Amino acid sequence: MLLAYALSSGITSGALYALVAVGLVLCYRTTGHINFSHGELFMIGGFLAFTLHVMWGLPYIVALLGAVAGSFVLGVLTDRVVYQPLIKAPPIAMVMATVGLSFVLKGIGRHFWGGQGEVVPFPPLVSPAPVLIGGVAVFPQQLVVVASVVVCMLLLTLFFTRTRAGKMMQATAENAHAAYLVGIRVERVYMLTWGVGAALAGVAAVFVAPLTLLTPDIGLSLLLKAFAATILGGLGSMTGAVIGGLLVGILEALAGTYIASSIQDVSAFIIILAVLVFRPTGLLGARARREV
Amino acid sequence: MVTLSNEPSAPRAIKRRNLGWLVGRRPALAVGVLLFAVLPLMANPYQVYVGNLALIYVILAVGLNILLGLAGQLSFANGALFGVGAYATGLLRLDAGLPFWLALPVGTAITVAIGLAVALPALRLRGLYLALATVAFAQFALWTFVHWDSVTHGTAGFVMAPVDFTALGLRTTTGIYYLSLVLAVLLVAAAYGIMRSRVGRALVALRESEVAAESIAVDITRTKIVAYTLTAVYAGVAGGLFAGLLNVVVPESFNLFQIVLQFCMVVVGGLGSIAGSAIAAVLLIVLQEGLRGMQDLQEIGLGLLLLGMLLFAPGGLVQALRRWLPGWTEPHSRGGDE
Fold first, then answer.
1. In this predicted complex, what is the ipTM?
2. I need a surface site. Which of A73, A102, A256, B92 has the fewest CB within 10 A?
3. pTM, rounded to two decimals
């Protein structure tokens, strides 16, 4: 019973980590950079939904669309303000620039919404009463989250395999120079990638909001969980990110249930370190190649 | 990896003509040290405290610059190691009963050991993985400070007796201040020494290209270990002094804001410039004290500063100093001589 409960909550949070991790991997694959402000995009998305839904009383679907649109715009801004200007600078500069951006966003979150998400909770979408499925009590909110994440993944897969923009993104990730030579406007693809990656964080935030307290500091711990997921799955692999996300969620739920609940806060660190020591390429990652 | 600046250096011809050397780096640093030396004689206790904090951050920023600017290795763990240094020194005094002069070096040794324990497993990997591991470590260290109650005294932290300087005929605040000043001067001088040594050149070779460095027989792994060790030493000393300055150690002094604060110091000063880090550390501590209590503004301000410097002035303050002051030279930044 305890195990079933831990598993169901682990799968729920794991599905969300997967969603955030997929956004992170998407940007990494196409641009070769990890966005250290990805967690803050999530945080801002969550607070946008909070403002629209809880403070202004607009319907949930409007809040969802608003948060997604808002984080998409922030992602595009990241591309314009940070990525494009620093594209030729050393990677270390890009990392520090996204760190700088993450603190700007965190400060903005604190300035406008500091303390609010902790006081006024985000109402659940569906009835909070648990339902029994095969003898296991499951919260409907969890089912909604998992179903939505699955839908998002399917949409993303369709986007990559069926649409022109998705195929251009794949081509650019594969080889930006070759993509440029066959007439793909690589710059636009980068912009779209940052936008879509950020929008995924926004979607995840809207689903997380009813399950947790929103705080301006939520970004970093979420970013670390997504890192753990991507490293576990193998940096650069989308499928790996999904599997890694689910595993991180399940592992931390099990550790939280059977060892100590405060372990959940540092599960990311333990997983990252363990993967780095024992299987640095992750579960599905390709062998790391050295570039000269 | 290449240096951040593409700006031309000051023309060599101007150098040392007339009295140009008077406005160079060495005289400027000497004036700085002199100002810090007389500060306690003319300032109020709060100003002395800010001065002392600035000296501690000079040590931290210079140490981080060895890793970040000189060796080109990313680490987010410096704030956490700063905390480890403060906790180690403080707890050795409080619970193990060691005197401060012994607790500080032992605390520093513990900091180095913990820093290496984090860096070693990740050293086999490329920069990005190491960066990720150190971010996670920063969060883990904070978590340990809060949750390992039996050792760290938990969320509320702990209070120590002030460090006793009566043997030297000094009050505690003055004693810690001058100790910080002496250590800061020594460690800045040591950083310049390291820079000009074989080790320093190996670090720069590592930054410029790992493959090229390896081809001229630089042991990559060993050089990285040296870089992480040196930075941990600086962080440990700074942490120990910080514990001595405040006499109170609480987890939130070492929160993740340290990441942006210390990155800012290194970048504002100029990546790879020891003097730049020292100057930027003093300026930013004064700025931070000005924004005291306004966490949102501190985050937005320092975040924008970091971003703005990287976008518009990647060479940092030192780039401007080198351009406008003919006597200002910087070893190991592009176009730098000595």
1. 0.86
2. A73
3. 0.87
